[in-house]
Amino acid sequence: MSVPQRMKKAAEQATGVARPGPREATDLVVARKSNEFRFRDDGLVPNHPSWPLLVYRGAVTLPRDFDPAAVMEELFSANGWADSWRNGIYSYLHYHSRIHEVLGVARGSAKVRFGGKKGRTLTLRAGDVAVLPAGTGHQCISASDDFLVVGAYPRSGTYDECKTPADHARAIVTIPKVEAPPADPVYGSDGPLLAAWKD
Question: Of 17, 136, 154, 190, whose CA is between 20 and 30 Å from 95?
Fold first, then answer.
């Protein structure tokens, strides 16, 4: 997280200014059908063997009286997704083999390739949310100057960053062992994730 965003987040948490409460954040959610994308192992990026990437288009309303990053943080936290950060998305291909990740676009837009070299490039805009099961390759191809994303993780799992061929053999063993989270980061205990990510 950049120093200015770290300071802004700390100030909002200390004062409550421009930061919604958990109830206010969940009230900003718009019912949307999930877009599901499945990717195969391409030899470098395993992707998840069973569970799809979920993309919710325009799922979160971002009113002017709240910091949009704070909206995403409070929403994810209310649904049990923690350790949030604010930044862009790395421009190099990587994935996480021991934890799932949610990416909520707070500002701007970006073209993001998911799934590795044989994956798919999607344009994400403010209010969109992508939920990546462990193993899903991702990298930013291009972004607007004001692009800002909030990332978070379920409370179970361990953060790692995989990007080399040497990571692949270990990752194909650990990815299927990462448990499904108890709640969807946007829609909570009734969210589409719970049906899409079944063993």
Answer: 190
Q: If we measure between CA atoms, which residue out of 75, 104, 85 comes closest to residue 188?
A: 75
Quick check: 86 and 9 in contact, CB under 8 A? yes
Q: List pLDDT tens digits, range 121-147.
A: 999 999 999 999 999 999 999 999 999
Other beta carbons less than 10 A from residue 68's beta carbon: 24
CB atoms within 10 A of CB 89: 21
- How many Å apart are CA 48 and CA 145, to the nearest integer? 31
Class (C level, CATH) for 3-180: mainly beta
Nearest to 144 by CA among 113, 109, 112: 109
For 76, how many CA atoms within 13 A lie in the half-sphere containing its CB? Answer: 29
HEC per residue, the chain? CCHHHHHHHHHHHHHCCCCCCHHHHHHCECCCCCEEECCCCCCCCCCCCCCCEEEECCCECCCCCCCHHHHHHHHHHHCCEEEEEEECCCCCCEECCCCCEEEEEEECEEEEEECCCCCEEEEEECCCEEEECCCCCEEEEEECCCCEEEEEEECCCCCCCECCHHHHHHHHHHHHHCCCCCCECCCECCCHHHHHCCC
Q: For residue 56, give both structure tokens.
A: 């919710």
Domain ranges of the chain: 3-180
